[in-house]
Amino acid sequence: MHFPITGTLINTATVIAGGAIGVFLGNRLPEKMRQTVLSGIGLMTLVLGMTMAIQTKNALIPLFSILLGGIVGEALRIEDGLERLGRWFETKLGRQLQAAAGEQSGRATITQGFITASLVFCVGPMTILGSIQDGLMGDFTLLTIKATLDGFTGMALAASLGAGVILSALTVFGFQGVLSLLALFAGATLGGVTRETLWVVEMTATGGVVILSIGFLLLDLKRIRVANLLPAVFVAPALVLALGQLGL
Predict the structure, then answer these.
(1) Tally of structural domains, the chain
(2) How far is Cα 37 from Cα 77, in angstroms, rounded to an integer?
(3) CA–CA distance, 80 with 61 (Å, rounded to integer)
(4) Where is pLDDT greater, at 177 or 80?
């Protein structure tokens, strides 16, 4: 049996390293350097998404998964909900903590950095898809790419929000670790799950389409409501299993 949280450990380490470097460098990290690195990560994200997407055995499965998942996501307004959650943490809770801290502004800054970075690192398709892949199949490629992105993002956040960003590594470790362990448990319950299992293949291919949209965002090519496409990842295996029951 593979170690199910390898990707999470890598991600945790890069958040710590990126946050520490950001605290040390402050605002001395050149903006052009950050933009160039993020663009490179965006290009590799596109490559990874395409590689995942072309694994499909039946292009209609990812197609209908994206369509149905997008409809569900828009109906549930997942993206709007996540944005509201982020604003709530960053404004209302941040102000409450700052008021409670009184003159201890350093503690409030650490708390704000911790909350903000935790949301940035843990809310998104890469977190869910990567953790599922790591736990289910032992494939931590996606989490490694996310870890690289989080490392550089952590530098930028820590340069402005301080050492609290480093503490968000605890959130990354706990949240992604739990997701990976749940995926591992689900795979063990279903039995005989491998990379070649049809529903896994189609879930991976559908996830690749979602990952492509993240690449577009990183490259400022197209603003896509990525979070509203997340249900597609769960629609894909459901479609495969339903078609299997129908003998199709």
Answers:
(1) 1
(2) 32
(3) 27
(4) 177
In total, the chain counts a number of residues equal to: 248
Q: How many of the other CB atoms lie within 10 Å of CB of 66?
A: 21
The pLDDT, as a whole number, for residue 103 is: 43
Which region holds residue 144: left if phi is over 0, alpha if psi is between -120 and 50, else beta? alpha
Where are the strands (E) in the chain, listed by range?
Answer: none
Domain interval for residue 238: 6-245
The answer to whether the CB of 41 falls within 8 A of the CB of 149 is: yes
Tokens of 218: 């990183």
Classify residue 159: in a domain, yes or no: yes
Q: Rounded CA gap, 69 and 88, in Å?
A: 26
Q: Report how far Cα 31 is from the mean position of its chain's Cα atoms.
A: 24
| Largest CA-CA distance found in the chain, in angstroms, rounded | 68
Residue in 33, 43, 51, 53 with CA at minimum distance from that of residue 219:
43
Residue appearing with tokens 């550089």: 152
> Position of tokens 């995942």?
52
Segment 184-229, tens digit of pLDDT? 888 777 666 666 788 888 988 998 898 888 788 778 888 888 878 8
